[in-house]
Structure formats: structure tokens, C-alpha cells
Amino acid sequence: ALIGKGNYRHFMMKEIAEQPTVIGDTLQAFMNPLERRIQLPNLPIDLAKISRLTIVACGTAHLAGFVAKYWLESIARLPVDLDVASEFRYRQAPMDPNGAMLVISQSGETADTLAALRYAKSLGQKVISVLNVPESTIGRESDLVLHTLAGPEIGVASTKAFSTQLVVLACLALATARARGAIDAAREAALSAALTEVPARVAEILNHDAHLKEIALKVAEARDVLFLGRGTSYPIALEGALKLKEISYIHAEGYAAGEMKHGPIALIDENVPVIVVAPTDELFDKTFSNLQEVMARGGRVVFLSDADGVRKLGNQAMAVVELPKVDPFVAPILYTIPVQLLAYHAAIAKGTDVDQPRNLAKSVTVE
Ligand code: G6P
Q: Where is the active site (predicted)?
């Protein structure tokens, strides 16, 4: 069927707005409704016994894998290697015989990701893939496909594919944690409940659209933009920077907030907006002190946090976006939405071709 933009100006905005629905659909596919807990299909590997998971992907899918590394290591106690496919495939990396590979791809056709999968298979690894197009080359060559139910994604800049990848990966992290005895039943129930609430929270965040548009107009005037975060907010900072670069052509960098003092702090002045991804989690105070270092140097902060964080900051920032207070486990899924909207509105302000940014392709089958 022909896919239209509906009432939206761009596919990208339509796809951003679809997220409450497609996140809900994806979650339902992995949630046992009676037991209210995550249930994965039969896996080709024993999650309790694997020694290591190697996650490989490109672009935005790689950043979903980056969030998954934090989840799988901290919640499921599973060591994770993560790399971009175009590096991994050429590195002749030894792979642990008791390990497995996870590839993540919207299209299932990215040449480098496919080559990484084939390399792993040549070493006898089992491969699980997280795909939006299961009937793809990567889908056919995987031992198991976990399907993101994002539906067709037309905008070149990935939005709903990314957030549904995060949902599938969160489910995988919980299932892995259970299999490995790394989580007790009460904690698992709490994290599953937090996931169940995500669609409604994402819908709430979409209501901040007009406010994010105002902020984006200021961001669009900048030549350089910095995104900061720690923990799972670090990959979201990277994703925010990637999205902004891709569609608005503004130079943006994502940085681990604690690493800022080792370089990017030299860039900070009143011309550089600094977008701080700061849910109140166990690392919030550390991120907050990095934010104060930015403000002390005249940096213009866009603060993405919840009511507790906003209360602590007061009105010192250039802009504040107050997001719902949630279990930190699901924060990366929710904080994705404002960075998507900032990029979208900055691109509109710049007058770029949002759905077809120059030089980029939706599916990259060249190496
Ligand atoms: C291209 C797209 C990105 C995407 C990346 C990986 O660069 O423009 O949005 O993240 O490829 O694509 P995949 O289909 O493997 O997720």
C-alpha cells in the first residue's frame, strides 16, 4: 500500500507522532498479558549460559545498541562488546565460543551490518537480530529475529525504528536478567510496569512540541551544539547530536558529560547551546555539576529533566523541558522524543529537506 503523510508536513513528524502506538504494539508483542512479564520467543542461545554478547550495528541502530549495553551489563550482568559494523567486520576480532551476536538494523539490508553477521557466523556464533524488516537479507541469515513493530519508516532520519529498537532491547535485558538470576521478582515487576507506562508517557511528551519548537529556533542559530549525558543518557546525547547533524546540518557533538572536561569544555561560550539529557537517576548529581561548569563559562543550557531536576536547577538555564518522572530504566526511551523534536524543528527553521537530507540514504548497501 502507498504510505502517505496524513495530516503531517513530513514523514519524519508523522513517524515521531506514531511512537506511542508503535512502542505499545512492540511491547505487547513481547509481554505476556496474564503474567504481565516479558516473554521472548524461543532463542537459539541460552541466555543463562552465554559469556558475552557482541552487539553490532550502524548509525542510529548502533546507538540503540549502546543503550542496550548499559542495560545488559547493569541489569542482566552480561558482558557486552559494542561496535559499529564498518569497524567490527574488518578487525578480525576473536569471538568467545560461548558468546553470541546481536545485530540491530531498521532495514535489515545495511551492507556492513550484514558482513559483520556473516563474520560472526563463520566463527560459529549464533546471531539474534532486532529488525524492522524481518523479510530482509539480515533477517534470512539470522538464527532468530526480534521484530520491531514500527511499521514502514520513510524519513531518512530514523525515529520510531530507534524507539522501538529500545523497547525490544529493554525486553531482552529483562529476559536476560531473569535467566541469569540477576534480578529478583519484585524488581522485574517494577521494571516491567515502568515499560508498560512508556506509551502513555511518550504521548505526554509529544505535547511539549510547541515548546521544543521555540527552543529549536534558538538552537538553529548556532554553528555548533553540544549534547551531554551520562549512563544511558549518554547514547541519547549521541543520538540527539546525530539527528541534529543529519537533518539540520548544524555541527553537533554528543559527549559523555564526565568527559567534557577533557576537551569539549574548551568550546563552551555564549554561542554554543548545550543540551543536557538529565533524568534524575543515580548519576544526576554528577551530570548536574557538569552543567554548572557549562553555565559558569557562559554556555547556554537546554535542560531536559523531570520535576525533581527542574526544582534543583531553578531558572538558570536558557530553556527547561520538564519531562515525566519515571523509573530511570525507561528514561532513555522517553528522552529520545525531545531530541527528535528539537532536530526536526531546527531543520524546519533551517529550511532543509527534512525527509531527504542531502547525501544521506535510508538504507546503505555500499561499503
Ligand atoms: C543509514 C540511515 C540511518 C540508519 C543507518 C543504519 O545511515 O540513514 O538512519 O540508522 O543507515 O541503517 P539500518 O537499516 O541498518 O538500521
A: 362
Q: Which atom of ligand 1 is closest in space to residue 158's alpha carbon?
A: 9
Give the 3-state secondary structure of residue 31.
strand
**Mutational test site, ligand 1, from 136, 146, 362, max ligand atoms within 8 Å of CB:** 362
What whole-number distance in Å separates Cα of residue 172 and Cα of residue 284?
Answer: 26
Distance CA 243, CA 92 (A): 31
Index of the ligand 1 atom closest to the CA of residue 360: 8
- Distance, in Å, from the CA atom of 150 to the CA atom of 131, rounded to the nearest integer, reads 10
Closest CA to 272 of 320, 209, 225: 225
- Give the pLDDT score at 124: 97
Residue 164 CB less than 6 A away from ligand 1: no
How many whole angstroms separate alpha carbon 248 and alpha carbon 242? Answer: 10
Q: Is the CB of 106 under 6 A from ligand 1?
A: yes
Query: Which residues are 54's β-sheet partners?
Result: 81, 101
Q: Check residue 99 and give its pLDDT.
A: 97
- Ligand 1 binding pocket mutation candidate from 110, 135, 356 (most atoms within 8 A of CB): 110
Task: Name the 3-class secondary structure at 118.
Answer: helix
Query: Active-site positions?
Result: 362
For ligand 1, is residue 105 a contact (CB within 6 Å)? yes
Average pLDDT of 31-58? 94
CB of 129 within 6 A of ligand 1: the answer is no
321 in Cβ contact with 212 (< 8 Å): yes
- Sign, CA torsion 65/67/70/71: negative
pTM of this structure: 0.97
Helices (H) and strands (E) in the chain, counts: 14, 12
191-218: pLDDT as tens digits: 999 999 999 999 999 999 999 999 999 9
- 161 CA from centroid of ligand 1 (Å): 10
Among candidates 9, 352, 15, 3, which has minimal Cα distance to 162? 15
Amino acid (one-letter) located at 134: P
